[in-house]
Amino acid sequence: MEGKTNIVQDIKPKLDTKDYYGNLPIHYTIANDDHQMVLNYFTKGKAYFELRNFKYETIFHIAAKNNSLRSL
User: H/E/C letters for each residue in 4-20?
Assistant: First the structure.
């Protein structure tokens, strides 16, 4: 969904919708380093930094693995 803000405006992702691997929409957004999507759809707060997938990875783990620190 990288750079697909027009499509996402119609979908309106929810913060708590996990996929098979426990990843949330914010995980995929950060993995793709889509800074604009993060600004448009996700508000930073305590819950934002504590989100984990089934591998117990936070958004910081995902950003480091994908070299996408700009979106944080």
Answer: CHHHHHHHCCCCCCCCC
Calculate the dihedral angle through the C-alpha atoms of 24, 30, 34, 36, rounding to the nearest 10 degrees: 80
d(CA 35, CA 58): 17
- Residue 68's φ and ψ, nearest 5 degrees, are -125, 55
Could you tell me which residues come within 8 angstroms of residue 34 by beta carbon, excluding any fewer than 6 positions away?
A: 1, 2, 3, 71
Would you give per-residue pLDDT tens digits along the chain (72 residues)?
445 556 666 666 677 788 888 888 888 888 888 888 787 777 767 777 888 889 999 989 999 999 988 887
Q: How far is CA 9 from CA 27, 45, 72, in A?
A: 18, 22, 21
